[in-house]
Design a protein that fits this description.
Shape: globular
Structural class: alpha/beta
Number of helices: 8
Number of domains: 2
Distance between the termini: 40 Å
CATH superfamily of the largest domain: NAD(P)-binding Rossmann-like Domain
Strand content: 15-25%
Order of helices and strands: HEHHEHEHEEEHEHEEH
Oligomer: single chain
């Protein structure tokens, strides 16, 4: 396989490839980059380059053995080793995120959630929601490595600081606030404003092209 710098775009595409291949019928033994590109509406050249960077199992006219390619992508993404995370949020949005079942397939185990308005512990399906004042205790007990921040903007930095104090290595920020973290903590920001702008621009481009 190729050994080259990995782009953010490629990292974003890899889970999409993985989910598509896993959803194929069990009778599908091999899959080509051409078929993946066609099914997902992606450029064939990009798909070929992506797969070449994570797997050397491709064969001319045969494509990649599905099981082998799944293993290669999962190894590349590191999803075979699970890490613990918690979500700090509020109300129904917190409950919706905790009920999302896709985290486990990405190697992320959500230990529980922390509600800004929660006075006592309660359960949502198989997850526990704790009062925010129990954050440090739960994080330390479960050796949490990632903190997901979805609290109101005015509480974001305070909750982030609490998570950092427990020893988390990464903060996944869903608030519109710029969070300050120490150099040893990785910060990943998700911007809903940027996403909706991108979506609208793509809609505009498609409308003008038709």
């Amino acid at each position: 396989m190729e050994s080259k710098k990995i782009s953010n775009n490629m990292l974003a595409r890899m889970p999409i490839y993985l989910n598509y291949i896993k959803a194929l019928p069990e009778s599908t033994k091999n899959i080509s980059a051409t078929k993946i590109a066609s099914a997902l509406g992606l450029g064939e050249v990009s798909v070929r380059k992506d797969l070449a960077k994570v797997s050397d199992g491709g064969r001319c006219k045969l494509g990649y053995p599905c099981e082998e390619l799944i293993n290669d992508i999962e190894s590349f993404l590191g999803v075979k080793s699970t890490i613990n995370a918690v979500v700090a949020g509020k109300g129904e949005m917190l409950q919706l995120l905790l009920s999302y079942g896709g985290f486990e397939s990405s190697g992320l185990h959500i230990v529980g959630g922390f509600d800004m308005n929660c006075a006592k512990k309660r359960n949502v399906e198989d997850k526990t929601i704790y009062p925010i004042n129990q954050l440090e205790k739960v994080c330390e007990e479960h050796q949490v490595q990632i903190g997901i921040v979805m609290v109101p903007a005015e509480n974001a930095q305070k909750v982030c600081d609490q998570l950092v104090s427990t020893g988390v290595e990464g903060i996944w920020n869903f608030t519109p606030v710029h969070l300050n973290v120490p150099d040893h903590v990785v910060l990943q920001n998700e911007s809903f404003a940027a996403s909706i702008t991108k979506l609208r621009m793509q809609m505009k481009d498609r409308s003008e092209a038709s």
